[in-house]
Amino acid sequence: MSSNARSVERLRPIFVEVMPALDAIQLGEIWISHKHRTVNLRCPCGCGDLTVLSLHPSRWHVHFNGKAVSLAGPTGGSVWANSGCGSHYLIRDNAVIWLDQIAPNRHADYAIRERARLLRGETTQRSLWGQLRRGWSRMRKKWFW
Ligand SMILES: [Zn+2]
To answer: Each residue of 84-121: pLDDT tens digit?
Structure first.
């Protein structure tokens, strides 16, 4: 959210081969490793969350003009934070261009879908286990009786 007092409007690109420990990544920095095809930055809103983007021809790309980086990628190159802050922004020539926040209900919908998916997975496992146990008890009954 751009109204956060700690938010940053400009990022400092740091090109590396290997990413540092995540604690080393500070607000206002954007770390880029082409070798490991990843871009890491603290959410520029100042919420402290780490944003990790995968560099891939069909995902994110970094344009570097010798001085400044711009990010291009899916959803028109806008980064949507996964965390609760709802940040949504573009990175152009090191600048953070704030876009509308993601409606909180989009996060909720996503969370509900994920939960449902997980629950379905659990249910499948449980019923499989139930089938095994039922099969086992039938076998035992046959064996003993
Ligand atoms: Zn944030």
So the answer is: 788 889 999 999 999 877 665 565 565 566 566 666 66
| Residue 75 CA, ligand 1 centroid: distance in Å | 18
Any idea what the Cα angle at residue 107 is, between residues 88 and 82, rounded to 5°?
A: 50
pTM beyond cutoff 0.85? no
Cβ(59)–Cβ(37) below 8 Å: no
State the distance from the centre of ligand 1 to the C-alpha of 54, rounded, in angstroms.
Answer: 18
**Distance of CA 102 from the midpoint of ligand 1 (Å):** 11
Question: What number of other Cβ atoms are within 10 A of residue 32's Cβ?
Answer: 22
- 52 CA from centroid of ligand 1 (Å): 13
Domain ranges of the chain: 12-98, 103-145
